[in-house]
Specification:
Blueprint lengths: L1 H30 L7 E2 L5 E6 L4 H10 L5 E6 L8 H17 L4 E3 L4 H12 L3 E5 L6 H16 L7 E5 L12 E5 L1 H14 L8 H14 L4 E9 H11 L3 H8 L5 H6 L14 E2 L1
Parallel strand pairs: 1-7, 2-3, 2-5, 3-4, 5-6
Antiparallel strand pairs: 1-9, 6-8, 7-8
Helix pairs in contact: 1-7, 4-5
Length: about 280
């Protein structure tokens, strides 16, 4: 009986939250009056997408992974995420399944993560290495940024390397968006259906709220929906990291408003970029 009551309670809570998030999304859409311009990613570019936890890659870069326009490798930073060992292994298998669906190679950082990542970047020499947006509340997401910075510090970068940040749960401020990947509504629906089908361990993840960020960002850029990115030269990214990485107080302030779309879009974010040097093609 208790289990049934809990199930009904959780379902009612989910429906209540979705109703609230739908209203907040509509409010944000009404606030957008002017369209912005951004760049689309150049075809044939090569990307390494670093994921702190299994599912971050699909949330932030699903359109890149599913596209045949780019050369994409996944790099699982394999952070603990507070999971038990059994759940951790299941989550890793979920990402491996996703990678196999699109024939994308996947690498796992284990033991000396900095050294392994350094070797991977030296081998692949990607145009862009992607990590989560640095305005974040999750300590392990931020730790992955530190791992990348440490790997780059040890690299002899003899190719044109850029760092791209993708959107996970915190929306990227429009002033920091340099590139977008267009998604039409059927693709958007398919993306989030696939999320629910593949990442079974994430049944409590607030995908409904997170998915609305792509609709809101889409209106800014005159399309149905889009994934958004902040891409800059790796040296500029390191300077932004040193200057703007959130401290514990800022992380907590972000965490405290995560459940509200309105509050997330009201967050004051620093300007991270000056000029991107990545070869671009206009939208």
């Amino acid at each position: 009986m208790k289990r049934l009551i809990l199930c009904v309670y959780n379902k009612l809570r989910r429906l209540r939250n979705e109703h609230r998030w739908n209203k907040e999304c509509k409010l944000q859409l009404r606030k957008i009056k002017s369209k912005r311009s951004a760049f689309q990613l150049q075809k044939e570019s090569s990307f390494v997408i670093i994921l702190p936890h299994a599912d971050d890659e699909w949330i932030g870069c699903g359109s890149l992974i599913s596209s045949s326009d780019y050369k994409v490798s996944l790099c699982n930073a394999d952070m603990e995420g507070g999971d038990s060992e059994s759940i951790h292994l299941i989550r890793r298998a979920e990402t491996e399944r996703l990678a196999n669906m699109y024939s994308k190679p996947i690498h796992t950082l284990c033991n000396n993560k900095v050294n392994y990542l350094k070797e991977l970047l030296e081998k692949e020499k990607p145009d862009v290495v992607f990590v989560p947006y640095m305005i974040d509340w999750h300590k392990e997401h931020l730790e992955v940024l530190h791992i990348l910075k440490s790997a780059i510090d040890e690299l002899c970068v003899n190719w044109k390397l850029s760092v791209g940040m993708y959107q996970v749960t915190v929306p990227i401020d429009p002033k920091n968006i340099t590139h977008i990947s267009l998604i039409d509504l059927p693709q958007w629906r398919a993306k989030w259906k696939l999320f629910r089908d593949v990442y079974k361990t994430q049944s409590t993840f607030p995908w409904y709220r997170v998915s609305r960020n792509e609709i809101i960002q889409g209106k800014r850029f005159a399309c149905d929906a889009c994934e958004v990115f902040c891409i800059m030269d790796y040296q500029e990214w390191i300077q932004a990291y040193i200057k703007h990485i959130p401290n514990a107080d800022i992380q907590q302030s972000i965490r405290s408003v995560l459940s509200s779309i309105d509050a997330l879009y009201s967050l004051k974010q620093p300007s991270l970029i000056n000029e991107t040097k990545f070869p671009l093609s206009k939208q």
